[in-house]
Design a protein that fits this description.
single chain; 181 residues; mainly alpha; 3 domains; 10 helices
């Protein structure tokens, strides 16, 4: 019996956006994801590049759409920043990395500072070291090169060098509290 081969259907290009469709894209996005105002604007810009603007002429005011989402309470940069900061610190990332992530999501300095108060630098560094088996939580580094690699991992995770060095050089968990006195 001969097998049937399916012809690939060509997808129709999506219809260009109009004001209502663009508003619907924004609402659909904020109902599915917690986001910042700047991130929502970037998404809307991307959708406009992909699908185009039906009404011709000047593109829509994306700031007005984002402001409306903020007004309705669907977008709140402060809550987004606090939630993201807590989540990243639970993964063991330090304040520098959290600050970098918040800035990439369009969170301004004052809101970042408020969110960073939620991050306990020591706790995040210890979580990271435990997860990656660094310092007293794993085998001791064989040589200087291995220790440098561990320090580099801590630095990439956003931990201060003094804190990273103290954790990586500790040989047991009992040495850790003494390193921070």
């Amino acid at each position: 019996m001969a097998s049937k081969t399916r012809e690939r259907r060509e997808r129709k290009p999506a219809a260009p956006l109009d004001a209502g469709a663009l508003q619907a894209v924004a609402v659909r996005y904020v109902e599915r994801f917690q986001t910042s105002r700047a991130r929502l604007i970037r998404l809307l810009e991307q959708k406009l590049r992909q699908r185009g603007w039906e009404e011709g002429g000047a593109p829509p005011d994306l700031d007005a759409i984002a402001d409306r989402m903020v007004e309705l309470g669907y977008v709140n940069d402060a809550l987004f920043a606090e939630s993201r900061a807590r989540g990243l610190s639970r993964r063991g990332l330090g304040q520098a990395r959290v600050r970098q992530t918040l800035a990439a999501n369009g969170i301004d300095g004052d809101v970042q500072a408020s969110a960073l108060e939620q991050v306990d630098a020591l706790e995040a560094a210890l979580l990271f070291a435990r997860r990656k088996r660094l310092g007293p939580f794993g085998p001791p580094p064989e040589d200087r090169s291995a220790e440098e690699k561990q320090l580099a991992a801590m630095a990439r995770a956003g931990h201060p060098s003094v804190l990273a060095r103290a954790i990586v050089r500790a040989r047991s968990e009992d040495e850790l509290p003494n390193a921070f006195d």
